[in-house]
Each structure stands twice: as structure tokens, then as C-alpha cells.
Amino acid sequence: VTEEDRAAELQKTKTTPAETGVNNLTGDVVDLETLRKSVEDFFSFCYGEALGKSTMVPVPYEKIQRDQSAVIVQGLPKGLAFKNPANYDVSTLKWILENKSGISFIIKRLF
Length: 111
Prior knowledge:
With 111 residues, this protein is mainly alpha-helical.
């Protein structure tokens, strides 16, 4: 092994972590968007189910925020407000997906 080979190998190991870091950052952004989409789809399914439909129905997040007594979301942790998945952090999104069997919607009043 020559000095040039060692220098080339050292250069590879120096650049790899930086490249990996960039890829991980991009992966994290993609992962966050995937999580948000999964929770949004899950909420749409729950909302449709609460309306008596077997299909996903878009959730009217703004209307629910304005009239919080119209729709009750059961199964969220105490202190966690129901809101658009775009406003949740990664750990909350993951918790929702891991515990979705215990989450349900109850429609008190239609919009």
C-alpha cells in the first residue's frame, strides 16, 4: 500500500460521513412527509367511518378547530389536541400510527 493509496482511502472516509449526513437529512424530510400523509389518510378513514362510510373522507380540520365540540377524537394522549397532521412533530405522528387501533372519531354535529 503506497502513501497515495492511503491518502485516497483517507479522503474517501472523510467525505463519506458528510455525504451520508446530507442523505439522512433528505431521508428525514421524506420520512416526515410520509408520516404526515399516513396520519392524514388514517384520520380521513376514521372521519369517513364516523360518518358511516367505508371510504376515506377529507377531514375539515379548520371547521373542527373552530367548533371542537362537533367532532370528538378519542384515544389521543391527554393534552394532545387534535389538529392537522402537518402541525405534529415526528414523535407524535409515530405515536398516532403505533396506537391507531385505539383512536376513533365521534361526530356530534355535522358541518
